[in-house]
Each structure stands twice: as C-alpha cells, then as structure tokens.
Design goal:
alpha/beta; Cytidine Deaminase, domain 2; 5-stranded mixed β-sheet; elongated; about 45% helix; Rossmann fold; 2 domains; 7-stranded parallel β-sheet; dCMP_deaminase-rel; nucleotide biosynthesis; P-loop_NTPase
Length: about 375
C-alpha cells in the first residue's frame, strides 16, 4: 500500500504520516530537493523557495519579501532538522519517478509520502492501484498558530508573523498555478479536517477510521455490487427519490433496476406520476403512485427462474414493506442495503419470519472527515 498525503500549510501532513509510521509499520519516502535553502524541507517550503518573492516586492511593497525572508529564516531551522532526519533515512529519491519505481517493486509493503509537488506527479502515482491519496486541512487561524509555534520558541518571535502575511503564504501554497496544492486536495479519496491540538486524541481518532481498509483500494464484493446499485439509481426518473437495485447470484449480476414510471408512460420527473408531483408525504397516496420501485424492476427483469437459491439483492435504500413481501416470494436469500428507510422495522420483521437475511453495509469512512468528531467513527 502506498499512501500520499497532501494539504495546506501546518494542517498536519507530517503528523499523520508519522502516525502511519509508528502505528502501522509504514516507511516514509521523500523526494530530495536540490535547493540549498530548502533541501529536505516540506512541500510548502519548496513552494515558497520557488514562488516566495512576489510582485508586491517588485512594486515597492515590502511585506511579502519580508515574509519570504522570514519564512526562509524560520524554514532554515526546520530544514536543517528535517535534512538531518532525512539523511538518516534510506528512502530519499532524486525524482518522483525513482520513488514510484522503488515502491512498485515492493508494493506489498507499506509506504507513505508527503512529497507530491504537483498534479503531474499525482497522475503518475494514481496509475498504481495500490495508491491512496489523503488530504488534510485545518482552519486558517489554527494553522497560523501552529506555524508560529513550529517556527520559534520565544513569545516575541511567535507573534512576529501577522495573519496577512500567513494568508499570502497559504494562498501561494494552495492556489499557485504550477505548484498549488488545492487541485491535489480536491482529488483525495479521504479528506481530513484536523483541528486537533492533542496528539493522543488525534491518533486515537485515526485508529477508528480504519484507513488501511482494503476496500479503499479494491472494493469488496459487497461494496462493488452496492456501487452498481448506486449507479443504477442515477437512471431513476422519479422526482422524489433515487433508488437503485442489483440482483446477484454466484457473484454475477442477474438484473438491475431503478425506480420510476413503467415503460411507455411519461417519466415521473416530467410530471408522469401525479402522486409524486403533488409532493404528498411519505406513506400517503401510495395507491395512486405510478412509479415502480427499484426492487420491483429488478425482480421483474430477473424472474423467479433466474433468481433461484443463493440470490442476493443489493439496494442502496432498505426495501419498503411492499417490496419486502415480493422479495420473499421470488426466493431471494439475502438483502443488503446502504441507507435506512422509514419502514426498516416492518421490513426486518417480514424478512426474519421468512428466513431472509437482512444486513446494512457500512463502508469505511471517506470524503470529508472531521477528526474532532470521534464519536462518529466507532
């Protein structure tokens, strides 16, 4: 497994990388920078070395040039420390190509890097099916305080960096046309919001997230078929709700279905179903609804002869009571769903009596994850 971490300045990239190293046996990989000022420095330091002298300095405005000098002064201290650390590491590479070649030959081992300088390098990494991109961000004021704390030890020096200076530095790091990190962050599979000030709490939360779950790289059969059900839902023509369904036997798709009006009738989304378009409440006016449910469509497509023993129905929403009795009658053995519905209890009772297994698929957390909301990841 190869994890790449990108993000804003002082958001916690190195901290998360260190968590992977110390708790999960990863090895940290680096790309060496030939610049004498920033050799071994972090990605934001490298970005500053290239872009730090701004147009403001050329126009007689001194703030950004002052910030450039300040950052290099502070960064030189960090760079010396990091350079010494990296010199003790075996895994330092001159180019991203060399790093990737090294990992590819050892892809079953665990590797992490915080050196993703641009989208071209990211494109190269993402071609490998064992690569996972993680981004980390934090509020500007939190990152500013971390920047001050990281850069010096005295109270006077801590207060020397103004918020306007830091905003300019942060904007360059995120939005620079060549080396800006925002395009990389937008492509991350897992996006952390890290406001934590307690390292132990941060590590505990990361431990709950199961970042190394194989599903993140190659979906399990459950995740795969549920993704197909969600894709089928995109074809729904119902104007109130999108639902998709897949019927599977022996890990092969028998049929798919989505909700909407029957063939030959005007689509619900175009006014074809009066009940849906009148915006009646849940459970009201069902007798006049012209929309077939996703499960009904999938079962009609499959037919009882094709279902037989061992069939599994995947639906992105838990089936309603009406669909549940049809699922039982056709002979489905197991129902897997993703999202709850208002009739889950009644549906579960029907399946329990009929001997149909019902379970909810809970995939590993992805998208934007607030690391301070640890109660959500148990």
């Amino acid at each position: 497994m190869f994890i790449g971490i990108c993000g804003s300045i002082c958001a916690g990239k190195s901290t998360i990388a260190q968590y992977l190293v110390s708790h999960h046996g990863f090895a940290h990989l680096y790309i060496k920078d030939d610049s004498s000022l920033t050799q071994g420095g972090s990605s934001e330091e490298k970005s500053l070395a290239v872009n730090g002298k701004s147009d403001g300095a050329a126009n007689g405005g001194d703030p950004l040039e002052g910030l450039h000098r300040l950052r290099l002064t502070m960064g030189s201290r960090l760079s010396r420390q990091q350079q010494q650390q990296r010199q003790r590491q075996e895994h330092v590479f001159s180019m991203a190509d060399d790093l990737l070649d090294f990992v590819t030959k050892r892809w079953r081992e665990r590797w992490v890097t915080t050196d993703i300088p641009n989208e071209a390098v990211l494109d190269m990494y993402t071609r490998r099916p064992f690569f996972l991109l993680v981004s980390v961000d934090a509020p500007l004021t939190v990152r500013l305080q971390r920047f001050r704390d990281r850069g010096s030890g005295s109270e006077q020096q801590q207060q020397s960096v103004g918020i306007e200076q830091f905003v300019e530095l942060s904007d360059t790091h995120l939005y620079d046309p060549v080396s800006g990190q925002l395009p990389l962050m937008s492509r991350a599979t897992v996006r952390f919001l890290n406001t934590s000030s307690d390292l132990a709490h941060l590590y505990a939360t990361l431990g709950k997230l199961d970042l190394l779950n194989p599903d993140r790289l190659r979906p399990s059969w459950d995740s795969y078929f549920m993704a197909l059900a969600s894709l089928a839902a995109q074809r729904s023509n119902c104007m109130k709700r999108r639902v998709g369904c897949v019927v599977v036997r022996d890990k092969r798709v028998i049929s798919t279905g989505y909700n909407g009006t029957p063939r030959g009738l005007q689509n619900c989304g175009e006014g074809g179903c009066g009940r849906c378009n009148d915006a009646q409440g849940s459970g009201q006016g069902l007798a006049t609804c012209l929309c077939l449910h996703a499960e009904e469509n999938a079962l009609l497509e499959a037919g009882r002869d094709r279902v037989r023993d061992g069939a599994v129905l995947y639906c992105d929403t838990c089936p309603c009571l009406t669909c549940s009795i049809k699922i039982v009658q056709v002979g489905i053995n197991e129902v897997v769903y993703s999202h709850s519905y208002s009739m889950d209890g009644q549906t579960a009772a029907v399946f329990r009596e009929a001997g149909v297994r019902l379970r909810q698929l809970v995939p590993p957390a992805h998208g934007l994850i607030h690391l301070e909301k640890s109660e959500m990841y148990k």
